[in-house]
Amino acid sequence: MEAPVYTLEFEKPLRELSAQLEQLRKQSLENNLDLGREIAAIEKKITATQREIYSSLTPWQRVQIARHPRRPYALDYVGLMCTGFQELHGDRQFGDDRALIGGTAFFDGQAVMIIAQQKGRDTKEKIARNFGMPQPEGYRKALRLMKLAEKFNLPVLTFIDTPGAYPGLGSEERHVSEAIAVNLREMTLLGTPTISIVVGEGGSGGALGIGVTDRVLIFDNSYYSVISPEGCAAILWKDPAAAPKAAEALKLNADVLEKLGVVDEVIPEPFGGAHNNPEQAAATLKYSIQKHLNDLRALSVSRLVDTRYERYRHLGVYQEGGAVLA
Question: What is the value of pTM for the model shown?
Answer without folding.
Answer: 0.89
